[in-house]
Amino acid sequence: MGKNKIIVSGGLGFIGSHTVVELIQSGFDPIIIDDLSNSELFILDRIKEITGIKPKFYPYDLCDYKKLESVFSENKNVSACIHFAAKKAVGESMEIPLTYYRTNLVSLMNILEIMKNFKVGKFVFSSSATVYGQPIELPVTEESPTQKALSSYGSTKQMAEDILEKVSATKWLQVLSLRYFNPVGAHPSSLIGELPRGIPSNLMPFVTQTAIGIRKELTVYGNNYNTADGTCIRDYIHVVDLAKAHVNACEYLLAGKNISSFETFNIGTGVGNSVLEIIQTFEKVNEIKVPYTIGERRKGDVESIYANCDKANRILRWKAQYTVEEMVKDAWNWEKTYRK
Ligand code: WQD
Fold it and tell me: Which own/partner contact pairs does 137-145 have at CB distance under 8 Å and 24+ positions apart?
């Protein structure tokens, strides 16, 4: 039997590229579609450097129906799709909401419709912890209520989950929606990692860019939250652990083990860390100072969120392995190697 073909949209992005590596190393045949709008072509060579295999690649925008359709015509017997391709900057999504709704939803609708026509019925979706808003109880489980998203970005993730639930109820589609917490770190080889364009809005790339001197100092957004040190708590997860969750998700769907046609899973570590803890761990592990000041709270930030991942552990047989120390070490090694 040949390898299972998996279409990976957004497969050259941060999470996508790490997932492609793990898929190849687990015996799958990933086919990448990525329009390079927030990724770089050299990542494809790096994937080959790590795995020895250069996957098939199409530089297409998923909003282009005809081009997307041509990928499915050229590649028969695709087993499943993992759909990463989307716009993901929370702040930007408030300035250009229409672009976010169009890009994130039209691409989803296109890939689903084409999958249906080509009888590909298994789908892994990149969802987000954003769907929970500020949870009433911690850690959050998949049963915790979702809350109306504050950002247009979050809103596209909620709408997408809603669409997937309704479409999967018509039975041709089986969906696993993975709700990511805060992905950080990089491949231990330092050959692939996060490549934010412009000024990073996420914490970890801002920390690494400050440590290397590209940014003068980091602003900690608020230290008057109701937490131990006053800064926000998040569940940071190593991107390789997150990538592996997608492999388990594919194996689970392909084995037909899913009980319902739409299942959600929290993908985090179950451990919450404050912003100051992340900075301090980074400084200690990497033996480098990260200049920072305390600033105002950032609009839209929830105070504290971390995951209960028992469901993924029990059903997908997946559990995060990397520690926060390894996350900050790999993030820093990647930044240093990339800037060389
Ligand atoms: C983490 C913490 C900030 C930058 C968002 C999306 C989520 C996911 C990941 C992705 C917060 C603080 C940050 C800085 C800081 N989506 N911070 N100074 O907001 O938890 O999650 O990104 O693509 O869906 O909502 O992540 O990394 O932006 O922030 O103090 O310069 O770091 O206030 O407490 P967030 P983040």
Answer: 138/272, 138/304, 138/305, 138/306, 139/235, 139/270, 139/272, 139/306, 139/307, 139/308, 140/266, 140/305, 140/306, 140/307, 140/308, 141/266, 141/308, 141/310, 141/311, 142/179, 142/264, 142/265, 142/266, 142/311
Q: What digits encode the pLDDT tens for the residues 149-202? A: 989 999 999 999 999 999 999 999 999 999 999 999 999 999 999 999 999 999
Which atom of ligand 1 is nearest to 233's Cα? 34
Identify whether 10 is part of a domain: yes
Would you place residue 20 in the very low, low, confident or very high pLDDT band (cuts 50, 70, 90)? very high
Nearest CA to ligand 1 atom 8: 182
Tell me which residue of 146, 158, 180, 150 sits closest to 265, measured CA to CA: 180
Q: Which residues form the domain of 28?
A: 5-184+238-268+313-320
Q: Is 217 inside any structural domain? A: no
- Please indicate, yes or no, if residue 26 is contained in any of the structural domains: yes
Q: State the CATH number of the domain containing residue 254.
A: 3.40.50.720
- Atom 13 (ligand 1): residue with closest C-alpha? 203
User: DSSP per residue over 209-257, as a string?
Assistant: HHHHTSSS-EEEE-S-SSSTTSS-EE-EEEHHHHHHHHHHHHHHHHTT-
Is the pTM for the entire model greater than 0.70? yes
Ligand 1 neighbour 301 (Cβ under 6 A): yes
Maximum Cα–Cα distance across the chain: 58
221 C-alpha vs ligand 1 centroid, how far in Å?
10
Q: Does any domain span residue 216?
A: no
Residues with Cβ within 8 Å of 104's Cβ and at least 6 positions away in sequence, in order, are: 86, 87, 153, 156, 157, 160
Angle between helices 107-117 and 65-74 (to 10 degrees): 40
Q: Based on the structure, what is the number of domains in the chain?
A: 1
76-108 pLDDT, tens digit per residue, is: 999 999 999 999 999 999 999 999 999 999 999
